[in-house]
Design goal:
Organism: Phialocephala subalpina
CATH superfamily of the largest domain: FAD/NAD(P)-binding domain
Number of domains: 2
Distance between the termini: 16 Å
CATH architecture of the largest domain: 3-Layer(bba) Sandwich
Strand content: 15-25%
Number of helices: 14
Protein name: Related to salicylate 1-monooxygenase
Shape: globular
InterPro entries: FAD-bd, FAD/NAD-bd_sf, FAD_monoxygenase
Strand order of the largest sheet: 5-4-13-14-15-12-17-16
Keywords: FAD, Flavoprotein, Membrane, Monooxygenase, Oxidoreductase, Transmembrane, Transmembrane helix
GO molecular function: FAD binding; monooxygenase activity
Structural class: alpha/beta
CATH class of the largest domain: Alpha Beta
Helix content: 25-40%
Length: 428
């Protein structure tokens, strides 16, 4: 846009916000600042997974990001299982205990990876110009947004007012920016409790191998059962095993203000009473587990209002049953940053945000809905499927192909770029 820069304020220094900033950094006409309410970079949680769609999105953001990521990511520990997504088996006691449901084989050239969230955050920060020192401001809690048309003003709790051409809300599940888009009291602004919670824990790989054997410990595994399921995978270059164990609460309300609550190993074992040796052996080695409430967002028809646009969990918090929360944040970052790279005037901002909506709203809202169903599938809660393992296997394959393997963010960006050109032409 000539000598006039595009000034972007990024609210939130989580995975989506920093990935988006990395994508903007390759465009010299875009000036950006990240505003984070915490005193430093920090990610909540443990392991996170990416499928090939997430890997492609990283490459679309920055080839350096994808290269750096691979140095820290974990893949299946057995070389012959690198093309395997997960091994699925029945985990609860009974006649089906230990029976393999399916071992999903990804299409040729596809990969599944896992990484500890703090390591992913480090990779992202390392890829930022000057490692983020000049572009990130901490202790900045957003309290108000004032859209004045040509400019938008962010007001922070410390009294600072920041003017920008565009604000990108990457402020997570309790997003202040989302309230601006949909209204503070609107149900669309609030994430909904899904009725499921998840125990989370990390254990040294040596202890995991002693508990369940090398094959189960080092390679991605899921254990299914009625109203519960568990997944395990390696992180920290295979030196730790990440454990996520879901169960249905039977309630539609979460009684705590915090998303996570401390629990004991005894609590964990009690909630998985009646399960087989593999699962109970894993639970017995988890020290100080936490239980996390699983929330997701309702379906919407836009992610922007005026000069403010949502990205990542602020736009589409999802349950983790497809492992697509992080992947969709990176997809958002790839598509929006590259669309903004094609901004030649401030008048292009609205068609860019409309093109972003066309690429992201239906995709992400559909995944949210499908992920809820996937959680029910894993816990034998779908009436017409139940615990018929052949039907479960067929649905797993169909769902993975539709929502992970067959989605190409590069193609989605090309389509969004076409929408942008149509939008620009319509405004001339």
């Amino acid at each position: 846009m000539g000598s006039q820069p595009l000034n972007v304020a990024i609210i939130g220094a989580g995975i989506g916000g920093i990935a988006f900033a990395v994508g903007l950094a390759k465009y010299p006409h875009i000036h950006f600042t990240i505003y984070e309410y915490r005193p430093s970079y920090a990610e909540i949680g443990a392991g996170i997974g990416f499928s090939t769609n997430g890997h492609k999105a990283m490459s679309l953001i920055s080839s350096q990001l994808w290269e750096n990521y691979q140095h820290h990511a974990s893949f299946n520990g057995s070389p012959e299982k690198r093309s395997i997504g997960f091994n699925y088996e029945v985990g609860e006691k009974g006649p089906l205990e230990g029976k393999r449901i399916v071992e999903t084989v990804m299409p040729e050239g596809y990969m599944q990876s896992t990484i500890h969230r703090k390591h992913l955050l480090s990779v992202l920060v390392e890829t930022l110009p000057d490692k983020g020192e000049k572009c990130t401001k901490f202790n900045k809690r957003l309290v108000e947004v004032d859209d004045r048309g040509e400019k938008i003003v962010c007001v922070f709790a410390d009294g600072e007012r920041v003017e920008a051409d565009l604000v990108v809300g990457c402020d997570g599940i309790k997003s202040m920016c989302r309230q601006f888009v949909f209204g503070k009291d609107s149900e669309l602004s609030k994430a909904r409790f899904t009725g499921k919670v998840a125990y989370r824990g990390l254990v040294p790989m040596e202890k995991a191998i002693a508990a369940v054997g090398e094959n189960r410990a080092r390679n991605r595994q899921m254990y299914f059962g009625h109203h519960r399921h568990m997944l395990t995978f390696g992180v920290a270059k295979g030196t730790m095993m990440n454990i996520v164990a879901f169960h249905s609460t039977g309630s539609d309300a979460w009684e705590y203000s915090a998303l996570a609550q401390p629990r004991t190993t005894e609590d964990f074992l009690k909630d998985y009473a009646g399960w087989g040796d593999a699962v109970t052996n894993i639970i017995s080695i988890v020290d100080k587990p936490e239980v996390w409430a699983i929330f997701d967002h309702p379906r919407v028809n836009t992610f922007h209002k005026g000069r403010l646009v949502l990205l990542g969990d602020a736009a589409h918090t999802t349950s983790p049953h497809f492992g697509q929360g992080g992947g969709m944040s990176v997809e958002d970052a790839a598509i929006l940053s590259n669309l903004l790279g094609n901004c030649t005037s401030l008048g292009d901002i609205e068609p860019i945000l409309s093109a972003y909506d066309s690429a992201r709203v239906q995709r992400t809202c559909d995944v949210i809905a499908a992920s809820r169903e996937q959680g029910r599938l894993c816990e034998f809660e779908i009436d017409w499927v139940g615990d018929d393992l052949e039907k479960v296997s067929g649905q797993l394959d169909s769902n993975l192909r539709k929502w992970q393997w067959n989605y190409d963010p590069e193609e989605a960006f090309k389509n969004a770029l076409n929408e942008l050109e149509k939008g620009k032409a319509a405004t001339k």
